[in-house]
Amino acid sequence: MLTIRQKGDFSKLTKYLIKAKEVAKFDSVLAKYGQRGIDALSKATPVDTGLTASSWYYEIEKGDKGVSIVFYNSNVNRGICIAVILQYGHGTRNGGWVEGRDYINPALQPIFNEIAEAAWKEVTEL
């Protein structure tokens, strides 16, 4: 005779699956805002050749504490991201300094505000 006994329930599994479903839903929402961020950054980036402006991309990163949109720029020259030196400034070969221009924060702030508004709406409508 074979007897199988089970104690407990599947509440932890159920909770995990519900959370995974919510994260998957949030991914598509973040993708929409990710593209809006790329558009805003591309328009706001100072243009010389246009390479930096056209080199923005984003990734949605999932971690233990949630989901994030991370913006990147792939225009790198001699190991230095050009978008970063445009933002913060840089030294020149002859010892001079080129002042940076804060273009990233003003471009992304409206997007962040939209995300916060949408998240708040989602939370308060539960």
From TrEMBL:
This is HK97 gp10 family phage protein. It comes from Anaerostipes hadrus. The lineage of its organism: Bacteria, Bacillati, Bacillota, Clostridia, Lachnospirales.
